[in-house]
Amino acid sequence: AVYNTDYVPAEEVAPKNILANRPFVTSENAAHTDMNSGYNWCAENLINGNRYDMVTSSANDGMHYGQFAGFHSNVAMPSSIDYTITLEEGSKLNQVVIYPSTSKYSFDNPGEFFVPANYAFKISDDGETWTTIYETTNGTITEYAPIVIDLDEVYTANYFRFSMMNLTDYVKITELEAY
Fold first, then answer.
1. What is the rounded average pLDDT of the residues 65-87?
2. Closest residue by Cα to residue 176 from 92, 39, 109, 83
3. Cα of 97 vs its chain's centroid, Å
């Protein structure tokens, strides 16, 4: 097989997305569940393994047209969101990929793609004690592209947490993957 090494993890770590379709919990303010609107932005879609899950909106509904479905927070105020995923026991990872929404508008920062500026990845063996394996305070983007984060080592964990901190706007992410 031929792999684009910019976006595909090393085979010796894990050949599959270890977050796809795993059980998860979110902090209380995280899940936008308005599935009746025709926009499939709910907590389940962040790790459904399908980053090509297009919405079925019309060309006339403005900023929603042409976006992918995924996760959308229901808060637009300073707050934090934790998205905790139960992994297969002893899962290994050394790379995390965030696929932003294709929407190019943010209330506080027009031109950005609803990616939080402050976020961290944490791991745990027991779901109680957490170790931060990556953190940034400069995570916003102004050009659409997958955000590929190569970690400094191969980590083993039973739980993975995506913590978004100090939010001042909505969060919209198509897919979160880890390898």
1. 69
2. 83
3. 8
- Rounded distance between C-alpha atoms, residue 61 and residue 127, angstroms: 41
CA trace torsion 4, 89, 29, 103 (10° rounding): 10
Whole-prediction pTM value?
Answer: 0.76
| 9 contacts 179 by C-beta, under 8 angstroms | yes
72 is written with which tokens? 């959308």
Number of neighbouring beta carbons within 10 Å of residue 89: 9
Question: What value does the mean pLDDT take over residues 47-52?
Answer: 74
110, 95, 106: which is closest to 146 by C-alpha? 95
A 10 A CB-CB count for 64 gives 16
